[in-house]
Amino acid sequence: MTERLVSHLRYAALAVPDFAVERDFFVNHWGLTEVHAQDGLSHLAAEASSEPFILRLRRADKRIDLAGFAVRSRADIHALADKLHAEDVQFVHEPQELTGYSGGYGFRVFDGDGRVLEFSTGYETRTPRKIREREPIPAKLSHLVFNSADLNRTAQWYVDHLDFTISDSLVRPDGTEMMHFLRCNPTHHSIAVAMGPHHSLHHLSFEMRGIEEWMRGAGKILRSGARMVWGPGRHNAGDNTFAYFLDPAGNTIEYTTELSMVDDESWEPHRHDISDLSTQDQWGTAAEMSELVARESFNDIDKGLFVAPPV
User: Fold this and answer.
1) Strand ranges in the chain using DSSP code E only, listed in sequence order
2) Which CATH fold would you assign to the domain 6-121?
3) Which of 1, 75, 290, 305 is 20 to 30 A away from residue 215, measured at CA?
4) Hey, which CATH number is domain 140-296, 3.10.180.10, 3.40.190.10, 3.40.1190.20, 1.10.3210.10?
């Protein structure tokens, strides 16, 4: 069985210029719970997750602040830090006691494109509650997707340095790779990388309890006035449902459910042809993928690359 030092995706942190509007949307419409707040900083949890928070918002110019991953122990933190040092990965800070909300012990680095990644262990968890039947709120953070101007280089960085594995890929009819789905545990993907014109956030995905909650959630967000970018439908890679919306800052965010689990030893990665309509949507309920749809998730150029956030 494959043993990795990174256990799972914990949270995403975004900087947004209109902080109050963004926080209001995620709390009062998207269905997250604010568990800690201070001036210009908000930590939002999913009710069914033991993670202390799954989304952090900060008042600042728009950017991805960081992606947070969990590591099982302090020994594994140091083993991972030693590995990354030996591979000349650029550190933001060394392993240390973390002073932010929920604490813990860990370190931060820049990935190959300059995004900040945090690896932590020993942080305070929260007591989750069971999502009620038909309750249309997220159960957890599902996955995080980046745009990259150099798709294969970006994906290979996660394979080489963090031991992620490519589960599946989307390709053009001529074989050109357009997207890679990467896993660090049996979940089909915790992150993915999409080919784009620049480095940026492609989308954040939030897992719902089931199909009923997912559909009711999609309707709830439509009634909030947010625009649905694409969906509802069901992808081929990962076999998960999708409904994509734009948040007030212009980031693409997704409600999903039923993302597949894979067996590390037996799973064979697929190369799904994007010209096959069932690759993008097995059900045929979503609009056909087009340049106009794809452009919505190119997002603004991330100006925070190789610049560590202040918190």
Assistant:
1) 6-16, 33-38, 41-45, 55-59, 63-71, 91-97, 105-110, 116-121, 140-148, 165-171, 177-183, 191-195, 200-207, 228-234, 241-246, 252-256, 270-273
2) 2,3-Dihydroxybiphenyl 1,2-Dioxygenase; domain 1 (3.10.180)
3) 290
4) 3.10.180.10
- Reading the block at residue 53, the tokens are 């928070």
Which residues is 304 bridged to in the sheet?
none
In Å, how far are 52, 97, 210, 217, 293 from 135, measured between CA atoms?
21, 37, 10, 8, 29
pLDDT digits (tens, 9 = 90+) for 245-286: 999 999 999 999 999 999 999 999 999 999 998 999 999 999
The Cα–Cα gap between 174 and 172 comes to 5
CA 33, 66, 291, 277 torsion-angle sign: negative
pTM above 0.70, yes or no: yes
> What is the C-alpha to C-alpha distance for residues 99 and 108, in angstroms, rounded to an integer?
13
